[in-house]
């Protein structure tokens, strides 16, 4: 028989914490929202949901109609659940908070509702990324939101591709599920996934190469020279999709600092941290160029970071080259 993501998380929680089921209900809010988002995306060309919404978000990026739709779906499906104390979204300047006592509202969910949304109009993969934090017993909610990534209690993403795939971890391995549209459930397709120790691809926006610090150019040149192995280049421009390939096939993804964006482009809380948690759980590594992503103490919810993630061998070589 099939194992759904809901059943899987219940088993996991029973093994780890003998938890009350609160956590699986929380995850249920996420899976429901992502199924709503996937249904909208699947038929996007048939309804009037492609294109720009006409506003810019807090990042100064033009919001797509589907960004707004995806954000609303997550706010709607999660906001109604008692265990949620706050929701932090790429699309909202401030956290959305709920007036729930700390013994009830125990969790904070941080998300990028529709990652890679510039790809949506051309029918290329997009995704949803999420990270779950536990509300701290002391201090205000803001302090609970700004926890370093190693404190995440769960993280995951959904990639809306030829099939819709959900990948998550609660710190006990990385598991993957495929949406079976005939039953409307995410069904277990891989358990305890491991990223290959090295891989055949590097993935980066090479159009930025002239703007990178020299070490990153040296690194990519090294991969291209053949001395460290044989590499091919892949870059989708949807982080979730580029990461998903890296998880399955190995290799390295890089978004280094540029002259225009010296602090990097990708966001620490809802892009880098959740994927870093998954990568490490699968035997991979994630770095901001100077250290481990999961150790960074966040200072702001929309903080950006240089972000490099991938297989052990490629990431170790990167650290060596950058240290020279
Ligand atoms: P988004 O969350 O607004 O879609 O932006 C993040 C995206 C990532 O998915 C992707 O890795 C990156 O931006 C691509 O950036 P660029 O077009 O500069 O290569
Ligand atoms: Mg994004």
Automatic annotation (TrEMBL):
Residues 4-190 form the Fructose-1-6-bisphosphatase class I N-terminal domain. Mg(2+) 2 binds at residues 112, 115, 271. GO terms for biological process: fructose 1,6-bisphosphate metabolic process; fructose 6-phosphate metabolic process; fructose metabolic process; gluconeogenesis; sucrose biosynthetic process. Substrate binds at residues 115-118, 205, 235, 265. It comes from the Bacteria. The gene is fbp. Pathway: Carbohydrate biosynthesis; Calvin cycle. This is Fructose-1,6-bisphosphatase class 1. The keyword Cytoplasm applies. Mg(2+) 1 binds at residues 90, 112, 114. HAMAP family: FBPase_class1. It comes from Granulicella arctica. It is an enzyme of class 3 (hydrolase). GO terms for cellular component: cytosol.
């Amino acid at each position: 028989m099939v194992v759904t993501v809901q059943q899987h998380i219940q088993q996991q929680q029973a093994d780890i914490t003998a938890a009350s089921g609160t956590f699986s209900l929380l995850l249920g809010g996420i899976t429901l929202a992502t199924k709503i988002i996937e249904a909208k995306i699947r038929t996007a060309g048939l309804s009037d949901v492609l294109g720009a919404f006409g506003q810019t978000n807090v990042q100064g990026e033009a919001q797509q109609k589907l960004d707004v739709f995806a954000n609303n779906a997550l706010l709607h499906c999660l906001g109604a659940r008692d265990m949620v104390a706050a929701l932090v979204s790429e699309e909202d300047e401030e956290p959305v908070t709920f007036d729930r006592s700390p013994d009830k509202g125990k969790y904070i969910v941080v998300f990028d509702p529709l990652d890679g949304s510039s790809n949506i109009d051309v029918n290329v993969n997009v995704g949803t990324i999420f990270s779950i934090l536990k509300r701290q017993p002391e201090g205000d909610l803001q302090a609970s939101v700004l926890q370093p990534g190693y404190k995440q209690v769960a993280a995951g993403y959904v990639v809306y591709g030829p099939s819709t795939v959900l990948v998550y971890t609660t710190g006990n391995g990385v598991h993957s599920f495929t949406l079976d549209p005939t039953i409307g459930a995410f069904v277990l397709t891989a358990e305890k996934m491991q990223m290959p120790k090295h891989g055949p691809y590097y993935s980066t926006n090479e159009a930025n190469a002239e703007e990178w610090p020299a070490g990153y150019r040296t690194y990519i040149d090294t991969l291209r020279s053949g001395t460290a192995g044989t590499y091919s280049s892949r870059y989708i421009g949807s982080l979730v999709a580029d990461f998903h390939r890296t998880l399955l096939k190995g290799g390295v993804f890089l978004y280094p600092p540029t002259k225009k964006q010296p602090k990097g482009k990708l966001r620490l809380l809802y892009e880098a941290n959740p994927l870093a948690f998954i990568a490490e759980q699968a035997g991979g590594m994630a770095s901001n160029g100077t250290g481990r992503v999961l150790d960074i103490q966040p200072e702001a919810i929309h903080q950006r970071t240089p972000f490099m993630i991938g297989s052990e061998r490629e990431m170790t070589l990167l650290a060596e080259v950058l240290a020279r």
